[in-house]
What we know:
Helix content is 26%, strand content 29%. The chain has a 6-stranded mixed beta sheet, with helices on both faces. Residues 354-372 have low confidence and may be disordered. The termini are far apart. The protein folds into 2 domains: 4-223, P-loop containing nucleotide triphosphate hydrolases (Rossmann fold); 237-353, CATH 2.40.50.140. By secondary structure, it is an alpha+beta fold. Helix 3 (107-120) crosses helix 4 and helix 4 packs parallel to helix 5.
Amino acid sequence: MSFLELKGITREWNGQGGVKNVSFALPRGAFMSILGPSGCGKSTLLRLIAGLEQPQAGQIHIEGRDVTARPAAQRNLSMVFQSYALFPHLSVADNVLFGLKVRRIGRSEQVRRLDKALEMTGLQGLEHRKPAQLSGGQRQRVALARAAVAEKPLCLMDEPLSNLDAKLRHSVRRDIRALARALGLTVVYVTHDQGEAMSLSDIVVLMNAGRIEQIGSPQDLFQRPATTFAAQFIGEPPMALVDGPGLALNDDVIAGIRPEAVALRPIGAGDLTATIKDIEFLGSKTRIALTHPAAHGLAAFVAGSTNLALWQMVDVSIPENDRLLFNAQTGKLEKEPQQNSETRIRQNTASGIGPKAPFHLNLSTKPAQKEP
């Protein structure tokens, strides 16, 4: 039996926005992220699960019980909000224990749960501080501790890291995953950050315009995107799309290729001749962004640094076994790669495009003009 199940959930306003016919089943103890661009319905879906909004159609089941018409207080869940939702006049301990006091949990049990939650979230010694005396990361940990003491089996999180800087996001992300595992929580986590979704989740629900675009493991979404939307949303940088005729294919298909699978070659030795429009040094590797009339988002990686130059022309090899083919009309995946992509970074180095290996440009090819 699924722990959380949605069946045909729909909630719109004047026929617009919201979510449309959303269905999925989540097993107990799973960590699921709802991912997508702004306005795709992520937060609306979370509020529907929480009981803060009511669906116009469909059913919501938690632990086998139909809770569609039940208020939030009767759904046996906890929530962690983007804004922390802390009482500024209460101490850390009182904020953490607020829900337990409302439910009139015994004092000894409150102390037991508080001590455990503060230890799990690294807040020992801060019990008497007010929220204004805490950093952003500490405030979010207070919100996590409050969810922990509730000891509810289902925890909903609405972009809990969006107000934190990059370093804190990584730190608190680890706290969230560790907390979920330690408590055996089933988590539904809303985010627009694919890095969070891919690193935290067992299951990712990718939404687009109120509907589920694709649902599966992070590996599924990365390696086998179901549509061109998923291909261009997942990955950093995302999958490049090349019109079929650009690769001597039919015009009714679009080829998708991950930058890790793209190999750079001297002029005349590849599938396409492209122009370098950006070079981004990332430490252990360099991202090379390329432009070609038949391609969108074309990029490749080079190990270490490179002596390639902006507006230089290079040939690009797009191996057939690493191509995904999408229907040009529907955008849906028609053919998966014959094998998993193997990184071409070492090949780029071996072909004279990596660090300390001169790239011999074919000077008989006229360089492209710099874009305005």
